[in-house]
Amino acid sequence: MADSAYFTLLDHEGLLAVRGEDAAKFLQGQVTCNLNYLNDNHSSLGARCTPKGRMLSSFRIVPVEDGYLLAMARELIESQQADLQKYAVFSKSRLSDESSAWVRFGLAGGDAVLNELGLQLGAASDAITRTDSLLAVRLSDGRAELWAPTEDAQALQAKLAARLPHAPLNDWLLAQIRAGVGQVFGATRERFIPQMINLQALGGVSFKKGCYTGQEIVARMQYLGKLKRRLQRLRLVGAAVPAVGVELFSPVHGSSVGEVVVAAQAGDTVELLAVLQEDAVDDGRIHLASSEGPTLDLLELPYQLDADKEIQR
Questions:
Q1: Fewest CB within 10 angstroms: 36, 199, 294, 311, which?
Q2: To which H or E segment does residue 102 belong?
Q3: How confident is the model at residue 85 (pLDDT cuts 50, 70, 90)?
């Protein structure tokens, strides 16, 4: 179903709200994306890093009337709220977990339904459109997210079910994997710098915005080009879906050469994104969980990395 029209509930993620008159100024110094590029019609991917450039979270950020909503893995909300609160006390910003206030649906092939709801969503990646209570976001591969207040969830789900088949979250994650969009979960917190999951290729890192926590490391890695681990897409035959963070091995090293970023069932195979050392990719012999574990095959990502283009953002 991952290649057909469907809808699914995106309940694996939560929403962290940053609101107040200083919300933009405050977040600009905390995240990798440039908030000056955001408006009522445009969202962005982004991340928040440690001073050493390691991602504490990755997210989609959407502007709202008095601030921003950040959609991220649900298990990261509490820690990110607590971390950010330490700095928010010095600005006119307030943070809250709004996961229970919103419902989010993922739609594949659902533009006709969006139109019926009064949401004419543009084709450009990261585009936003809104009504009084609903908003929709375009993803890079053409899928869309539909956000609504929780009190509208039941009626909205009934409308979606009348027009689209319901699919499990697995199908949404499979589409995300095929789109080459990595993500930080609890098991991979502080494991990766943004370029390791190609966030800079997806518009989630700005190299023109100025300082933010971890910026020096992230910029140095981009300009010096010494990154030895990058996101790869792989396939595994006849195995259970591995958990996020499971290590990968190769004969080129006696220890782990990478870890699973996200994985999903794809018929009788598993597809996944993993951060892998380049010499292991060049060798091609990659195994799951141990040096004797199941063999993985490398697949292509749907985009090309272009450092010159990436630094223009």
A1: 36
A2: strand 102-108
A3: very high
